[in-house]
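[Automated response] Your request has been received and processed.

Submitted sequence:
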Amino acid sequence: MANDAIVAEELTYWYGELVAVDHISFNVAEGEILGFLGPNGAGKTTAIKMLTGQLKPKAGQATLLGMDVAKNVDKV
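Generated structure:
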């Protein structure tokens, strides 16, 4: 959507055999607040790292203000 500040589409990441984040998708509109909740080891930090460009997703895409995060790490 045009007013989505953050879009996560099928984000997936694994460490060796361990799937840390498995195809998560969500949108956060401009001005909206999002919280990540879950037990230890649920993939919260890995998901945030993909959204901020610290990790490149193994599958899926994260966009921030319309920019592909993995391709624009220097602008995030």
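Summary generated for your ticket: Residues 4-75 form a domain with the Rossmann fold fold (CATH 3.40.50.300). The chain has a mean pLDDT of 94.
If you did not submit this request, please reply to this message.
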